């Protein structure tokens, strides 16, 4: 973004706008790659959210949507063979979503095909990449309400 000045400290509003612009551009790249594999961005995001088995209700929280919407998303992923629903060991009424090997492969392809994102990150120096990762590790726990969590 050529319009960002590095000589003055940005305001919170300027940081919010910059973060929103980066997030929107990343999301467009992700959605386009997902569409090439016949998935909506919500379906692809769900695949990314179930790298480890996740209860349906928790998946709804991760996706920021109602539990009834998650049912449709997971139905489609199951139909495509990308995820399965299993009963939780402790409570068979609770359904756990589990990514399949094929789902993991499709997710890896989607992430690999995000050309603009890869181009942006590849243009960064090692120091910039380390700094960006560190900053994300500081900001994300506060934004998600998990301030006790250690940065990833």
Task: Compose a concise summary of this entry.
With 152 residues, the protein is mostly helical.
Which term fits the overall shape? Answer: globular
Sketch the major β-sheet: 3 strands, antiparallel
Helix content: 55-70%
β-sheet strand percentage: 5-15%
State the order of secondary-structure elements, H for helix, E for strand.
HHEHHEEHHH
Give the end-to-end Cα distance, rounded to a whole number of Å.
Answer: 26 Å
Radius of gyration: 18 Å
> How do the strands of the widest beta sheet line up side by side?
1-3-2
Structural commentary:
The chain is mainly alpha-helical. Helix content is 61%, strand content 8%. A three-stranded antiparallel β-sheet has the order 1-3-2. The longest helix is centred in the N-terminal third of the chain and has 24 residues. The chain starts with 11 loop residues before the first helix and ends in an 8-residue tail after the last helix.
Ordered list of secondary-structure elements with their pairings:
Elements: H1 12-35, H2 41-49, E1 54-55, H3 56-63, H4 67-79, E2 83-87, E3 95-99, H5 101-112, H6 115-122, H7 126-144
Antiparallel strand pairs: 1-3, 2-3
Quick tags:
mainly alpha, three-stranded antiparallel sheet, 3 strands, 7 helices
């Amino acid at each position: 973004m050529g319009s960002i000045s590095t000589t003055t400290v940005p305001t919170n509003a300027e940081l919010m706008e910059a973060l929103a612009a980066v997030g929107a551009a990343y999301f467009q790249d992700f959605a386009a790659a997902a569409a090439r594999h016949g998935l909506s961005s919500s379906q692809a995001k769900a695949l990314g959210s179930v790298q480890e088995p996740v209860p349906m209700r928790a998946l709804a929280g991760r996706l920021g949507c109602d539990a009834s919407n998650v049912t449709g998303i997971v139905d489609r992923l199951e139909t495509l063979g990308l995820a399965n629903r299993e009963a939780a060991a402790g409570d068979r009424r609770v359904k756990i979503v589990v990514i399949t090997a094929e789902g993991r492969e499709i997710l890896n392809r989607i992430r690999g095909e995000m050309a603009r994102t890869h181009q942006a990150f590849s243009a960064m120096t090692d120091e910039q990449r380390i700094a960006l990762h560190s900053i994300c590790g500081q900001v994300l726990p506060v934004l998600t309400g998990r301030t006790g969590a250690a940065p990833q």
